[in-house]
Write a structure and sequence with these properties.
The structure holds two protein chains of two kinds.
Chain A lengths: L10 H17 L3 H19 L1 H25 L6 E4 L5 E3 H27 L2 H8 L4 H30 L9 H32 L17 H22 L5 E2 L5 E2 L4 H14 L1 H22 L1
Antiparallel strand pairs in A: 1-2, 3-4
Helix pairs in contact in A: 1-4, 1-8, 2-3, 2-4, 2-9, 3-4, 5-6, 6-7, 8-9, 9-10
Chain B lengths: L1 H19 L9 E4 L5 E2 L1 H9 L3 E8 L2 E8 L9 E2 L2 E4 L3 H7 L4 E7 L10 E5 L8 E8 L4 E12 L3 E5 L7 E7 L25 E3 L42 E13 L1 H5 L17 E12 L3 H12 L3 E6 L4 E7 L2 E2 L8 E6 L18 E7 L10 H8 L1
Parallel strand pairs in B: 1-3, 10-13, 14-20
Antiparallel strand pairs in B: 2-5, 3-4, 4-8, 6-7, 7-12, 8-11, 9-10, 9-12, 10-11, 14-15, 16-17, 17-18, 19-20
Classes of the chains: A mainly alpha, B alpha+beta.
């Protein structure tokens, strides 16, 4: 992701950003904040993944949204506004539907943020951040995070090789296809077992676990990182203080209740909007600078 | 002023009760003042019956206000009826000391014959009764013997309101408020009425007409739990009836009284979930005592569900196969665990907290049902015995 600006920032900045947006989305239940977070995550994922992100959101996130929306009122019957009664005899309340919508949006917002997290927080950054504090854990995590993309890449290689000899999942009848699919999977498992042994051997031969090893890192904390860090700390501080003084309180049950609107609340909202749109704004700024530079260069 | 408001509430709630019970309420509420001689003409009752309406009759005696509620569909043969109730205190102190009760109110009826239509009587006392339960006794002065006739519902909003459906009218009656939970120990079974329960225990027998004592008098005394983990029910209390074994007969209509209260939350506001505070009624009454019509074969939960639905009161429940009953999770958006981890809804019928689920309590005519919120496993409402054993396991 050389196109993305946040990826070029210091890992601590990127990490803090994701901790703040994902944490606030999960733990602060406020529809306004959620809407901003959703907007930020959606625009960022589209910027990062383009058409693929739009397709993913429509194909997987929309059904997920609908299911979560319908599922909540089936199990939760709290709320003062009784719309009708379910066949079981329990009430169907407006509040439970509204909360279902909130929960569904929270779910897809967090998933979308994590898709961005995976793009930006590559395993080298992760190991850089946590290698000192929790070495074994960060190694396992980075391996685990790499697991799925690596497998998908390898399965593609195997499938392509099989296609060349006419044994892909697209060849033959239903039974034949299934057989081919299982063969491909079996090859993948064989490869992964072999690969695991290779990895272990490789780590051992490079001296894994020996004391006094140093780690190379390419990251530098420069001026723009300081500015970004300052912004994140201010936005995060506002968010946390707003949450602790219960100014960001919002109740879905039993009555939709919001904390009274205050000036401070509005400030938190504005800073949160800036926070969730931060990677997009950075990208737009860079793009704009690039364009003006290009324009001025062509003039010369 | 508060009394006026609560009266208005009674009228309103009863109105919604009736419409929910399938009778078409004409909307015109008949509130009649009982004359000095107490006699209400046959034509009045005919009017109530023919319009399928309900009638409220208010009276006052000895500074105590009382109210009769007649349901039109239950009046089969209207006649001239004397509704006068007399409140006296001729032997109150004797009964009070004999039963070791905190509160006693003596009353008698002007009429000696049962009133047609099984009306509900609500008595509005001038003071607060700090009692866990109220029971109705008759007292034989010669043999010094108290007979438990029925249990009544008690509400303090703001002063004591006692509600029950009278079955007997002849002689003096005593409403007895007890501070402890309704003592089964005090009552010996009707078959052992001559046997004194203890040295200093007063002799109390259970009347045959004791409301709710149950046609299904099979009281398991084997000491073993049934297949739904229920301990044997105490003597004089109905054993559980499995809901799937009962067919509801809509041709036979009975009445019972129902109230839903959460007074205990008022004492525990500090630990109440902050988002639920707005749902706690100021006087603790979610539904003040109302008379409801039910069909033969219905259980406590059926009545609760119908009444809540007709009044638009929120109620959430869950079927629990292991207890073969529903579990009421929340009423009026006040859920279990909302006021501390020992909080939740319990129910009481005729002053007793059954040790089984509401779907298994088969109702009898005239049963007094109370749904009460507890903040301490029933200890604060005198019902810990209903769950004591299952918690001890």
């Amino acid at each position: 992701m050389d196109k993305d600006t946040l990826s070029g920032y210091h890992p601590t900045v990127a990490m803090l950003f994701f901790v703040l947006v994902i944490g606030s989305t999960m733990f602060i239940q406020h529809p306004v904040l959620l809407a901003m977070s959703f907007l930020g995550s959606l625009s960022y994922s589209i910027y990062l993944n383009g058409r693929k992100a739009i397709r993913f959101n429509l194909m997987y996130m929309m059904p997920l949204l609908l299911i979560a929306m319908l599922l909540n009122p089936a199990f939760s019957h709290q709320g003062v506004t009784i719309l009708t009664y379910l066949p079981s005899g329990n009430p169907l309340t407006l509040e439970s539907i509204v909360y279902g919508v909130h929960a569904a949006f929270m779910l897809i917002t967090v998933i979308t943020w994590f898709s961005g997290f995976n793009k930006v927080m590559t395993s080298d950054k992760f190991v850089y951040l946590f290698g000192r504090i929790i070495p074994a854990m960060s190694l396992v995590l980075s391996m685990a995070l790499r697991f799925v993309p690596r497998f998908t890449a390898q399965i593609k290689i195997i499938a392509n090789a099989q296609r060349c000899v006419g044994r892909d999942v697209s060849n033959g009848g239903v039974l034949q296809r299934a057989k081919h699919g299982i063969k491909i999977l079996s090859m993948l498992v064989t490869w992964s077992l072999e690969n695991a042994i290779d990895t272990a051997d490789s780590m051992k031969s490079r001296g894994y676990g020996l004391p006094k090893r140093s780690a190379f890192s390419i990251f530098r904390f420069d001026k723009r990182d300081r500015w970004a860090m300052l912004f994140l700390l201010i936005a995060g501080g506002l968010l946390i203080s707003g949450s602790l003084t219960s100014q960001l309180l919002f109740w879905y049950y039993p009555v939709l209740t919001s904390a009274p609107l205050t000036v401070f609340q509005v400030i938190v909202f504005i800073s949160y909007l800036a926070l969730s749109l931060m990677p997009m704004l950075l990208n737009l700024k860079v793009d704009l600078t690039w364009r003006t530079l290009q324009a001025s260069a062509s003039k010369v | 002023m508060r009394k006026l408001i609560s009266w208005l509430l009674v009228v309103m709630m009863l109105g919604s009760c009736l419409s929910g019970c399938g009778s078409s309420s004409s909307g015109a509420q008949r509130t009649v003042q009982i004359p000095a001689n107490g006699i209400i003409a046959k034509s009045v009752f005919e009017g109530i019956r023919d319009s399928d309406d309900f009638g409220i009759f208010n009276g006052n005696n000895n500074d105590i206000t009382y109210q009769w509620l007649f349901i039109g569909s239950l009046i089969e043969e209207p006649e001239d009826m004397n509704l006068k109730v007399n409140f006296s205190s001729s032997h109150s102190s004797t009964v009070k000391s004999y039963l070791k009760a905190a509160y006693v109110q003596e009353l008698s009826f002007e009429t000696e014959n049962p009133l047609a239509g099984h009306p509900t009587l609500s008595i509005y006392l001038a003071d607060i009764w700090d009692a866990a339960s109220v029971e109705l006794y008759s007292f034989d002065l010669n043999s010094n013997k108290a007979t438990l006739l029925a249990t009544a519902a008690l509400e303090n909003s703001p002063n004591a309101i006692i509600t029950y459906i009278p079955q007997d009218f002849k002689g003096l009656f005593y409403l007895v408020g007890k501070s402890e939970a309704p003592g089964n120990s005090l009552v010996t079974g009707s078959d052992q009425s001559n046997q004194n329960t203890g040295g200093d225990q007063p002799l109390v027998e259970l009347d045959d007409t004791y409301t709710g004592a149950g046609a299904s008098g099979s009281t398991g005394s084997t000491g073993e739990k049934d297949k739904y983990l229920t301990d044997p029910t105490p003597a004089g209390r109905p054993a559980p009836v499995e809901p799937e074994d009962v067919t509801v007969n809509t041709a036979v209509r009975y009445t019972c009284t129902l109230s839903i209260r959460c007074d205990t939350i008022l004492d525990n506001m500090a630990i109440c979930e902050p988002n639920k505070v707005s749902q706690v009624p100021g006087d603790g009454a979610i539904m003040i005592t109302r008379t409801c019509v039910f069909y033969e074969g219905e259980n406590v939960f059926d009545v609760l569900q119908r009444e809540c639905r007709s009044s638009g009161i929120h109620m959430s429940f869950k079927w629990t196969p292991i207890y073969n009953s529903v579990y009421v999770q929340g009423i009026h958006n006040l859920y279990e665990f909302d006021v501390g981890e020992n909080s939740g809804w319990m129910y009481k019928v005729n002053g007793w907290f059954p040790n089984y689920g509401a779907s298994r309590y088969h109702l009898q005519n005239g049963d007094v049902i109370e749904w009460i919120y507890t903040c301490d496993l029933g200890r604060d409402i005198g019902g810990f015995y209903a769950i004591g054993d299952s918690m001890g396991r």
